Amino acid sequence: MGDKETSKDKAAGKYWIGFDLGGTKMMATLYDAKFTPIGRARKKTRPHEGLERGMERIVKTIHEALQEAKVDAQGLAGIGIGTPGPLDLDRGVILATPNLGWKNVNLKGTLEKTFGCPAVVLNDVDAGVYGEFRFGAGRGARCVVGIFPGTGIGGGCVYEGKIIRGRTNSVLEIGHMQVMPQGPLCGCGRRGCLEAVSSRLAISTAAAAAAYRGEAPTLLANVGMDLSNIGSNALAASVQGGDKAVEKIIRLAAQWYGVAAGNIVNLLGPDVIVLGGGLVAAMPKLIRDEVEKAARDRVMPSFADIYQIVVAELGDDANSLGAAAWAHTLITESWTE
Amino acid sequence: MGDKETSKDKAAGKYWIGFDLGGTKMMATLYDAKFTPIGRARKKTRPHEGLERGMERIVKTIHEALQEAKVDAQGLAGIGIGTPGPLDLDRGVILATPNLGWKNVNLKGTLEKTFGCPAVVLNDVDAGVYGEFRFGAGRGARCVVGIFPGTGIGGGCVYEGKIIRGRTNSVLEIGHMQVMPQGPLCGCGRRGCLEAVSSRLAISTAAAAAAYRGEAPTLLANVGMDLSNIGSNALAASVQGGDKAVEKIIRLAAQWYGVAAGNIVNLLGPDVIVLGGGLVAAMPKLIRDEVEKAARDRVMPSFADIYQIVVAELGDDANSLGAAAWAHTLITESWTE
Q1: DSSP, res A80
Q2: Would B4-122 and B137-311 be classified into the same CATH topology?
Q3: Does residue B149 sit at the A interface (CB-CB below 8 Å)?
Q4: What is the pLDDT of residues A188-198, one digit of tens each?
Q5: C-beta separation of B313 from B281 below 8 A
Q6: Which CATH number fits domain B4-122: 3.90.1150.180, 4.10.240.10, 3.30.420.40, 3.40.50.11030?
Q7: Is the pLDDT assigned to residue A63 strictly greater than 70?
Q8: CA of B266, closest CA in chain A: separation in Å?
Q9: Closest residue of B to A296, CA-based?
Q10: pTM of the full predicted structure?
Q11: A residues 247-276 near B, CB within 8 Å?
Q12: If one looks up domain A137-311 in CATH, what number appears?
């Protein structure tokens, strides 16, 4: 946050920006002091246009959210921005983003200079899990772990009110837990990672192959075999339409989430495991039930009754709410230090 | 701790008992305010003699440690006792101990009543990891994870000075992380747990089979094929004596610890991973080097430089030192609340 004097001055502001920076789109939400959204703006990220244009779009999106609520930048108490990593959390720098192609982005510095208020940069999945902890499916729990399958599989943990972190970077890389030695190649270059066997992308790939083999007629009729068209909703429609092969692929993937969830219960003893992301949102019951069954088989007897597996409640709002609320927590804490 | 007034009165005492309760032996150590040991007593646990006799032996062992230092019970500020679980941490009750055969043991209540000072019950591995965090190989690190292979494989995590715990019980059951789907049966009833493939017991079993096949002549000559004679030192002597098959068995097991360590780095981003227990102590370099190599293969690039893998420094003292120091931390905290 830099200078504490400056931070204190800005405490005069009472509004918070929660920003969700993703590989395809970005969203800024302006919250009042009770975290009620009062302004919102969205843009496409267009990472290929480069870092400088990207930063301009981020700044512009925040300005538009402010304008919508007729609040000016002086009214801001702080900005929280959730972004893919790896990050330098304390410096607020994106070190590299495989899905944006940007490197060494001083987000915190740029935002603080532009808007004259403290900014906090955090991992996007951590933001989502913190959002669910504060306002959603993990509300107030002593320990919440989030498992968010998507193109990869993200994870996060809020323990006694704080996001568990590494020395410099965010942690809980649940997607890279090895669940199958000598298993399929992962995007990270290793083998048998959870996300290599069961991410939404792994599911879509297997579903496309099933369509090719003639085992997924609904999927084939609806969207064909192009991976870029086989998203969570297409998968859900395929299951709904009776594609048994696709349903089986999804159940098997969910069983892997359950193995990971069971390992996590044995390791961290969370009170709540929140399943989130678009895939879970498209088929909440099917996935949650499989996860629960598989986790139960992995969990030690003494942990059997301490945890719940639930579906995320906040959808797209989780990241921006979590980012804003975490910024509030960190910035408020640093005042009272 | 029950009544705070009582606790405060006892703060007059300045000595601490650290107690290490194991399946075969128990040890009480009396520490001064700087955690220098000034009295010590040991006894066999003899769990088959039953709970009542067991409690008498625990109490007697503490009295003997006090007597050795000519300190009486009024001098005690608190007792920390590390024990296998599952436990009810807040009530200080051993719920069940597979290796003692005792159930619902109100350790905290009995010790507080007998010695008139607050007592804290914690998991034995947590005590060892906390000991290494305070005084040993993980001294002062932001996040320390311990991996202690033995009959099973214990784990613990100290994060920003606190032992990570579950709602009621201790956590970090690293031994029950599934590393091999459909792998060998574990003592916990599940399959493919880390400890099923690589505990000291799994190693001893494989070494005995190697001896049976004529591939471990040194082991066979030294101790034969009886599992109860194939402990860590016998395994080290076998490797030292040239039993290549046994060396390979140990290296493979250590590679599994490395897989687990890599998963843990990706999940928790510890600064230090401490390898401890008798097996590691008997072959520190061989095991540490294999663990490091295998972990490096599992760790994501952004975590590659943040962690160290080190060997425990405190040996048998870790548990009692850790138990005493953790009791000190919790009891002191509760005074200042």
Answers
A1: E
A2: yes
A3: no
A4: 999 999 999 99
A5: no
A6: 3.30.420.40
A7: yes
A8: 5
A9: B190
A10: 0.94
A11: 259, 262-264, 266-269, 271
A12: 3.30.420.40
